[in-house]
């Protein structure tokens, strides 16, 4: 079972509310409800007492909650011990998959022209919520994420980068007009989406909820965790996806895909570089951060993160 379900239960109990837990985890309330239902179905027990103004654990829920905290603590210890076995701890950079696919390869090429010390880095792709937790737990030093506005970043040092535009993408074979399409046209299609917790899915579900709809109204939903698989399915004309415009730029250019928007939808999401304020980048780490910002010429180089202006240290 994925630990995200246990983390969701912990957050619901901490906040006493499905809505507040959803805001904290940057997912929809329906996603939180489904995760709790999954746990209750799995253990065949009611885990939450819903009779009062705040959600509190039942006796069975208290037991699951206690074990969940132990499991997550063991998971964190395991990752820390595996890291320590390698001797020198590498610098861990984590990013969301879209950034990792679209931008990271070019950044790494530029960085390798400046330094040969790439072996000192560890690169991880994760969803925004897991990235925040990993930064808090000390698993990562630096992160770059595409995310919805609801994500709470107040505990970190941040610098905004040019954002990411989300569009609906389909094959021209589906004979849609492109440009701006009514939502009703989309709902007749198969929706290809990523797992719950992914920013693109959260933004789509939030947009739909504002208009009084849900993803359940699509002809059907096919969930893939691999963005490459989703793009291939789109090119083959199997359905529609709410996806990063940057990710499919070449397919659009070559005519393999076309894009359109929906009136009253929010189509933009934020992109942010962030790090824990106890992290000071020196040496090759500072060089790597500088290379990231050089990749975005719109960003004023004088706004380089504070972590890169501190005294150099061994990377």
- Average pLDDT: 84
Helix tally?
12
Low-confidence stretches: 310-315
What proportion strand? 15-25%
Q: State the end-to-end distance.
A: 36 Å
Strand and helix order: HHHEEHEHHEHEEEHEHEHEHEEH
- Which range best describes the helical content: under 10%, 10-25%, 25-40%, 40-55%, 55-70% or over 70%? 40-55%
In the CATH hierarchy, the third-tier topology of the largest domain is known as: D-Maltodextrin-Binding Protein, domain 2
Superfamily (CATH H level) name of the largest domain: Periplasmic binding protein-like II
- Under the CATH scheme, the architecture of the largest domain is 3-Layer(aba) Sandwich
Give a quick account of the main beta sheet: strands, pairing sense, barrel closure.
8 strands, mixed
How many domain modules? 3
User: How many beta-strand elements?
Assistant: 12
Structural class: alpha/beta
Inertia-based shape = globular
The level 1 CATH classification of the largest domain is Alpha Beta
Gyration radius (Cα, Å) is 21 Å
Quick overview:
With 315 residues, this protein is an alpha/beta fold. The protein contains twelve helices and twelve strands. It has helices at residues 3-15, 18-25, 29-43, 59-85, 97-102, 104-114, 128-136, 183-187, 199-210, 227-235, 249-253, 284-294, and strands spanning 48-49, 56-57, 91-95, 121-125, 142-147, 157-170, 179-180, 190-193, 220-223, 241-244, 258-261, 268-275.
């Amino acid at each position: 079972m994925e630990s995200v379900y246990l983390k969701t239960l912990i957050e619901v109990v901490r906040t006493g509310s499905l809505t507040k837990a959803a805001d904290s985890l940057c997912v929809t309330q329906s996603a939180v409800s489904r995760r709790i239902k999954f746990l209750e179905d799995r253990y065949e027990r009611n885990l939450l007492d819903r009779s009062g103004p705040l959600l509190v654990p039942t006796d069975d829920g208290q037991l699951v909650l206690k074990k969940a905290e132990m499991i997550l603590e063991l998971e964190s210890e395991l990752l820390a011990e595996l890291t320590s076995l390698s001797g020198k701890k590498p610098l861990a950079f984590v990013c969301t998959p879209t950034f990792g696919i679209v931008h990271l390869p070019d950044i790494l090429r530029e960085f390798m022209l400046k330094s040969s010390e790439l072996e000192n880095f560890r690169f991880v792709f994760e969803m925004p919520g897991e990235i925040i937790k990993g930064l808090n737990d000390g698993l990562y030093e630096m992160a770059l994420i595409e995310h919805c506005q609801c994500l709470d970043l107040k505990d970190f040092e941040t610098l905004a980068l040019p954002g990411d535009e989300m569009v609906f993408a389909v094959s021209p074979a589906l004979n849609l007009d492109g440009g701006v399409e009514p939502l009703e046209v989309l709902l007749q299609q198969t929706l290809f989406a990523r797992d719950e917790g992914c920013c693109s899915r959260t933004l789509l579900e939030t947009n739909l909820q504002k208009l009084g709809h849900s993803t359940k109204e699509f002809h059907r939903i096919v969930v893939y965790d691999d963005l490459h698989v989703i793009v291939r399915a789109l090119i083959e004309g199997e359905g529609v996806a709410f996806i990063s415009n940057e990710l499919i730029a070449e397919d659009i250019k070559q005519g393999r895909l076309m894009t359109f928007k929906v009136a009253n939808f929010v189509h933009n999401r934020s992109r942010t570089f962030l790090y824990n304020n106890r992290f000071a980048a020196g040496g090759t780490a500072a060089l790597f951060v500088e290379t990231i910002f050089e990749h975005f010429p719109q960003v004023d180089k004088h706004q380089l993160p504070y972590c890169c202006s501190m005294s150099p240290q061994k990377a």
